[in-house]
Structure formats: structure tokens, C-alpha cells
């Protein structure tokens, strides 16, 4: 889980690799990858505990994300 | 790893910028092309980013890419997550860029295109972007502490309390004025009203989709939502031609305001995933897409600016809002030049995502420059309109009257020729019954955008583009409105929790209902008064919002200046100290005029007196006399708020000066809240960035 997420692919690599990196960046921007990240982290750190379902995770994640100032004037 | 900086491209950028700016500022007697404005802006942003922000990062803040950020040290996979710099940039920009930079420049265009442009450029580069970057840096160094907490740390308890109170107040005023803008855009427009109304079930649908059908598939859900929003714009056109439905959606401002208030309450108490979050996703995509489209259209079409560089209204007699160029252009354009609100984001979610201190420059300084560019685009969209049309749309009925023939005569008399047939024809093209006195900035921006979009796509479909633009503005204004109501509720619960502990439990439903109702009635009151005010209300609320936003910016800059001095960098503290001094001057000056001016169009108290006199002498029409007591009370309340804002501003400045003196005389007993140095272990950090 350590390490900066993948570079969006502007630094080189094959066209397919760049496209994959771009998709990964877009999914990171929208939060599409949040559950996958949660799951891999959860399995690494608390393998003995059951993980939240995608639906429950989504609801709790949204609740957390919108608890502070998220939008400006 | 680092490439040697090439000098000649930067010399070229500087030359192009200088030529563009000379065209914008010095050309007289003929129209200026918007391309020069855009060119000047982009060159100035590039130069400022390359040189000024790099210098601040290296010499003033001394960012250290080897230092582990809170995202790395406190990584919990939820709010603290080391994130790629472009992803953080995207999140941060989406969070800071709201409707403010679209509305302020549109209103300030009454002074001509030049004052607004210069303030957006200079204020953005030397003020706003610096504030955002310094605040982000300080919060990143302090484990993501909030502005209020940092104000307490750096300026003492009084400074912290002033920041908290200021934040709640600015939130209420902001939501009220944004609500008013939406209401004015929907007033007697069945197409706009039905389209905006349709965005609510669309958001609910996407909310259910993302929760139960395909949990967390935001891209999919948003794509479906965008298609539905497009259909809603089309459908609105059909509604407008359907006699029964058109009558149903053809509403006065007051019922629409009530609907917005009810909506705001519902959005604050319903689960976030059901309404608020999906609406936010949609609005973010629509916002980014539309702003990009606008930039492309302006770059391709290169329209001529029709508005003069400077209009006669710099003398304070402007129809859209009263007040002279100085200081009111600096108050009217807050977002886009310098916006205190950004400091809440820069000390909120963003510092917890920064994976390297080296990213602070891009995220903090860079995204503010992009928002500043959005403000320039809005200014262009307002000033490519025929000035007569611009004034007809934006002047309140209280100034030009409700009769079209009489209104065009008044506006032509100001030196901005326009005729009734032209205005009526334009309204018909846009699919509206009238465009006269559609105050608030949204309709005139939509007319400007529709003209540009339509021209770029081969002409035609003006009505569709107009209502698309209205939908675009309404969608993210409503997002700011419901997200703001929710945050206001949390702040209030936090505050009341000190008195009654049960009320502080954020998930206790009675407390949720009570605090949401209190917040909604707070901004609902200002919205209601704005709606019943024959002068449109925007002319009162927008300056008040500007003053409060600049006050918050002053708090952020005072925290930054104080922190720089306490870090032993007093010699460089002018970087935040100068913008702070400027804001202190213009905010205090504007507030003094709003309080003391004898002109009822400028001074709150003069307006209250004037209305009181006319009420007593019986010269008001019965319907105006009926609302006069409320308007008088409101003007007095606005005066009290203005005093409060200036009081908070100077409280913070004095607290900062005292803290500085304590430090410089060696009596500073407080330790810095900066987290101790830990070496970063993230791969790729510190090299080649």
C-alpha cells in the first residue's frame, strides 16, 4: 500500500500502458477505485475481520467524504 | 534528473504576454479581441507559475520533498491517503471552483472589461494563489489542521474564534445569494424551472444506482446521469410549449424561493448518497466539461469584446450594484482573484492527500490560476454581449422599471443603445418570454455562452444552448447550496454540542433535524428578503458576500503571515503580508461605504432611512409599502453584519500583530505546531519533480 499511485502515463511507456495508466488516473479521480483500494488494504491489515460489502463501503465512504467543506463558492 | 531550464521560451511567453496586455489595456476607440485578453491571462499565469510560485516554494516556504507528508505518515486508507499529484489537483480544483468566479466578473463588467480583468490577473497571481498555496503548505506541515485550528495556534484563541464565526456567517450569506441567483434564473421560465426540477429525480436515480445497483461505479452512474440531464434540457423545451405544464412551471420568484429552501432542507437531512453525492458528481462533470467547451469556443471564435474598457459607472452610479470602482470592483470579484473560502479546502481534505511537499505548488498555486482563468472566461462571455443587452438583462426592475419600452429608453440614455425589438427577438431566440431584469448574472452569462456555443457549432439551437447553460449553472449552484447547508449543520452541531452535549451527536436525528432547520432558516431568511426586494437583492447580498469572503481571506493571510514570522522568515513575510494589507484596506473601505454612504444605493443605513421616509410620506405603492418594514429591518441587519465582519477582520489583524511582537521580542512562549521531520519513504518522491 505504500508508494505514490501510478503516474498517469505522461512519462513514456507503450500506448496500451499509457491508456491503462490514464484510466487508472480517471478512476482515482472519480473514486471508482475506492472499494478495490479499501479491500486490498483491509485484507493486508485485518485479514481476520470480514470486509464491508461494496454497497456498505460506498455509503460509509460517501458519508465520510461529505462531512467537511467539500465545495466552494 | 532535472532538465536545464530553457530561457528563450520564457522570454517569448513574457513578450507575448506584454503585447497582449498592451492591446487589452491601451487600445482605445476600437474593439479589442477576446484572444488578446485570453493571451494576456495565460502568459501571466505561466510566468507567475514558473517564477513567482517556484520562488515562494523554494525560498519562502522552503518545501522539502524529502519530508514525509501527513498522507504518508498517517495513511489510513480513508481521509489520509498519499495520492498522485494530478489526482489531488483534480480534486482540489473541483472543490474550489464553484459558481463564484462566474457570477462576480459578470456583475463587475458594469465597470467595463478592464478593471475586472486587471484585478482578476493581479489579485489571482499575487493574492489568491499565494493564499491557497501558503495555507495548503501550513496545513500539510501541521497534519492537516483546519484554518480555525491554525488560527488558534498562530494567533491565539481570539483569532481562532473569529475564524470560526466568520466561516459560519460567510456560509449563510453565500448560500442565500446563490439561491437567489438560481431563483432569478428560473423566474417565469417554465423551460429553466422544469429542467432544474428534473435534475433532482435524476440525482436520486443515480444515487440509488450507485448505492444498490452498481455500488461505487461513479463513472458509469455519472455517464447515465449526463445523458438524462441532456434529455432534461430537451424535455424542458417541450414542457415550455405544453400549455398545461408550462403554466405549472411558470412561477413567481417567491414560490421558487420556497421550493429552493425546502430542497435545501431535504438535501441536508437525507442520506448523502441519495441526493447530495450524485448531484455533486453530475455537477462536477458538467462544470468541467462546460468550462472546457467555453474556453475552446472563445479560443476558436476569437470574438470581439463589445463592452468599453471602462464605463461611466465607475463613478458609482452603476445599475447592477451601487458603488464606485474603488473599492467595489475588489469586493464584487472575490472568487477568481482571491477567495477566502479556498483556505477551508486547502486546510481540509487536500492536505491529507498530498504525497509530497513538492506537489503543493501545483495543487495550491496551480489550481487557483485555473480558477482565475475561469473568471476571465466568464468576463469575456459577459463582455462579448452587446452592452445594451448586458445592462437590460442585469439591471434590476427597481432601476429600469418593468416596462420594456421605458427600460430600453433608460439604458439607451446611459449611452448603451438597445431597442425593444432587439431585446424581444433575443428573448424569443433563447426560448424565454423576456430577458429584461433577469438579475444575478446567471441569465446574462447563459446568453453569452449560448451565443458562443451556437456560433461555434454552426449557429442555431440558441434556446437549447441557453437552457443548457442555465442547467449547468443551476446544477452546481444547488450543489454548493446543499453541501454548504450540510457543513453548516455540522458546524452548528459542533457549536451547540458545547451547551447541550446531545445536540453535538452528528447522527442523532432530532439534532440533525433541528440544526438543519436552523441553518436553512438562516440563509432562507436572506433569500426571502432578496426575493421580495424590488431591487433584486443581488445588489445587497453580493457585496456582503464579497466583504465576508475577503474577510475570510484576510484571516487565512494573517495566519500565513504570522506563521512565516514565527518561523523566522519575517523578511519574506511580505509575500502574504502585502495581499493582507491590500485586503484590509479594500474590505474596510467598502464596509465603511456600505455603512456610512449617504447614497441609498450604496449605504445600508441610508437605504433604510430613505425607505423609512418614503413609507412615512406615503409615496410608496401599496405592495411596496407592505414589504417596506421588512426591507428596512434587513438593511439594518446587513449593516450590523458588516460591522461584525470588519470587527472580525481587525480582531484577527491585531491578534496577528500582537503574536508577531511577542515573537520578535523573544517572549513567544508557544511552541510551533509543525509536525517534526520524518524522512519520506515513498518511492519517486524528491527526484525529478
Produce the secondary structure layout.
The complex is a heterodimer of chains A (73) and B (689).
Chain A: H1 15-30, H2 34-45, H3 54-65
Chain B: H1 8-26, E1 32-33, H2 34-60, H3 70-73, H4 85-96, H5 100-108, H6 113-141, H7 147-186, H8 190-213, H9 218-241, H10 243-249, H11 253-269, H12 276-301, E2 304-305, H13 325-332, H14 342-346, H15 360-383, H16 387-394, H17 397-400, H18 404-413, H19 420-429, H20 442-456, H21 462-497, H22 509-532, H23 538-566, H24 574-596, H25 604-617, H26 622-664
Antiparallel strand pairs in B: 1-2
Helix pairs in contact in B: 1-2, 2-6, 2-15, 4-15, 5-15, 6-15, 6-23, 6-24, 7-11, 7-21, 7-22, 7-23, 7-26, 8-9, 8-10, 8-12, 8-21, 9-12, 9-21, 11-21, 11-22, 12-15, 12-20, 12-21, 13-23, 13-24, 15-20, 20-21, 21-22, 23-24, 23-26, 24-26, 25-26
Radius of gyration of chain B: 25 Å
Poorly predicted runs of chain A are none
Question: Hey, roughly how much beta strand do the residues of chain A contain?
Answer: under 5%
Number of strands of chain A: 0
Integer count of domains of chain B: 1
Give a quick account of the main beta sheet of chain A: strands, pairing sense, barrel closure: none
Order of helices and strands of chain A: HHH
**Whole-Å distance between the termini of chain A?**
35 Å
Which CATH class of chain B applies here?
Mainly Alpha
Share of residues in strands of chain B: under 5%
Total number of helical segments of chain B?
Answer: 26
The low-pLDDT segments of chain B are 685-689
CATH architecture classification of chain B? Up-down Bundle
* CATH-assigned fold name of chain B: Amino acid/polyamine transporter I
Give the fraction of residues assigned to helices of chain A. Answer: 40-55%
The strand count of chain B comes to 2
What is the CATH homology-level superfamily of chain B? Amino acid/polyamine transporter I
Give a summary of the structure in a few sentences.
The complex is a heterodimer of chains A (73) and B (689). Chain A is mostly helical and 73 residues long. Chain A has three helices and no strands.
